[in-house]
């Protein structure tokens, strides 16, 4: 594995999850693996968990860490081939990626969907350009269409908490005042397709994820029906894929409540965070003993650490 761009870069999800759980028990077990190596973290969007957990993971492996917030601090980048750069963009990604490759041994990038143009977002312009021109491995810290570090985290968390071999896992859409990308949901779906589970997606009509990602995963448009007997409720908002980037102003009935959780098999509540309380989920649910969101966030470190370990060992 050179790059960690998507869930498809994982050769065996069960093996990776087992290894991450072992690493969690002894986080400093490979504390010299990354000595004298530097990771550069480039952020085109805000972050709390991804930024700090990836730094922590790198430090646990003995790496040096450089962080740059590109928006507002870096030169605005041009991605087009053959562009006459007489407009706003000051630097081409060709030079930027090659230059950064001289300062670092591993590069990690966060660049969200802009939700203006489906083709632009789903071509993964930023990540694909960096992977094309960088001469070092590139890690996806949430791109336009995927968040594979989060999904690996979610696989670890589900494995730790599942009580039966094949749990029922529900990915539920929930309301949000802003239009959000599909990245977290996409990677969660891809991850669940490599997991032994009874998996169902529930969302309002019109909020179908890309069919090339969901493939044969069942969709239940009735949220309460989907929740019945579930062992895990994984909640996320996403904007529409078909009517690209559109959100739903009348989606309040999809909020996660205590009554809906009562329909489940005493399900664990999961969310990648950040979450808007009492919009996405009621306090009574996120503060309940069944909420595992804080532990889920803790597992971000061990997902990132495992990915870094594999990259350091293979490059
Ligand atoms: N879940 C997640 O990626 O959190 P941040 O946006 O805070 O990094």
UniProtKB/TrEMBL annotation:
N(2)-succinyl-L-ornithine binds at residues 142, 176, 236, 276. Transmembrane segments: none annotated. Keywords: Amino-acid biosynthesis, Arginine biosynthesis, Transferase. Belongs to the aspartate/ornithine carbamoyltransferase superfamily. SOTCase family. Residues 184-308 form the Aspartate/ornithine carbamoyltransferase Asp/Orn-binding domain. Residues 4-160 form the Aspartate/ornithine carbamoyltransferase carbamoyl-P binding domain. Catalyzes the transfer of the carbamoyl group from carbamoyl phosphate to the delta-amino group of N(2)-succinyl-L-ornithine to produce N(2)-succinyl-L-citrulline. Is essential for arginine biosynthesis. The keyword Transcription regulation does not apply. GO terms for molecular function: amino acid binding; ornithine carbamoyltransferase activity. Its EC number is 2.1.3.11. InterPro entries: ArgF'-like (IPR043696), Asp/Orn_carbamoyltranf_P-bd (IPR006132), Asp/Orn_carbamoylTrfase (IPR006130), Asp/Orn_carbamoylTrfase_sf (IPR036901), Asp_carbamoyltransf_Asp/Orn-bd (IPR006131). Homotrimer. It is an enzyme of class 2 (transferase). It comes from Aquimarina aggregata. The gene is argF'. The keyword Cytoplasm does not apply. Pfam families: OTCace (PF00185), OTCace_N (PF02729). This is N-succinylornithine carbamoyltransferase. Carbamoyl phosphate binds at residues 47-50, 75, 110, 147-150, 272-273, 300. It catalyses: N(2)-succinyl-L-ornithine + carbamoyl phosphate = N(2)-succinyl-L-citrulline + phosphate + H(+). Pathway: Amino-acid biosynthesis; L-arginine biosynthesis. GO terms for biological process: citrulline biosynthetic process; L-arginine biosynthetic process via ornithine.
């Amino acid at each position: 594995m050179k790059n960690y761009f998507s869930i498809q870069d994982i050769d065996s999800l069960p093996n990776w999850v087992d290894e991450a759980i072992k690493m969690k028990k002894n986080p400093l077990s490979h504390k010299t693996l990354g000595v004298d190596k530097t990771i550069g973290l480039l952020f085109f969007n805000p972050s709390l968990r991804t930024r700090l957990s990836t730094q922590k993971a790198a430090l646990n492996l003995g790496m040096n860490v450089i962080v740059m917030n590109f928006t507002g601090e870096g030169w605005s980048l041009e991605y087009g081939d053959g562009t006459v750069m007489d407009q706003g963009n000051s630097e081409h990604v060709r030079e930027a990626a090659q230059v950064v490759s001289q300062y670092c041994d591993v590069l990690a990038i966060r660049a969200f969907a802009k939700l203006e143009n489906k083709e632009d977002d789903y071509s993964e312009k930023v990540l694909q350009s960096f992977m094309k021109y960088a001469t070092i491995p590139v890690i996806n810290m949430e791109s336009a269409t995927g968040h594979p570090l989060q999904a690996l985290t979610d696989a670890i968390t589900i494995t730790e908490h599942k009580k039966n071999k094949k749990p029922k896992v529900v990915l539920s859409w929930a309301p949000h005042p802003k239009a959000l990308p599909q990245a977290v949901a996409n990677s969660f779906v891809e991850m669940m397709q490599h997991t032994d589970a009874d998996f169902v997606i529930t969302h309002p009509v019109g909020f179908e994820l890309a069919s090339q990602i969901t493939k044969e995963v069942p969709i239940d448009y009735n949220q309460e029906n989907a929740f019945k007997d579930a062992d895990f409720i994984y909640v996320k908002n996403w904007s529409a894929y078909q009517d690209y980037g559109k959100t739903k102003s009348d989606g309040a009935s999809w909020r996660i409540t205590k009554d809906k959780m009562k329909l489940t098999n005493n399900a664990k509540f999961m969310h990648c965070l950040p979450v808007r309380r009492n919009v996405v989920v009621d306090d009574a649910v996120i503060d309940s003993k069944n909420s595992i969101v804080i532990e889920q966030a803790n597992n971000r470190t061990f997902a990132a650490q495992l990915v870094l370990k594999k990259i350091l060992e293979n490059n």
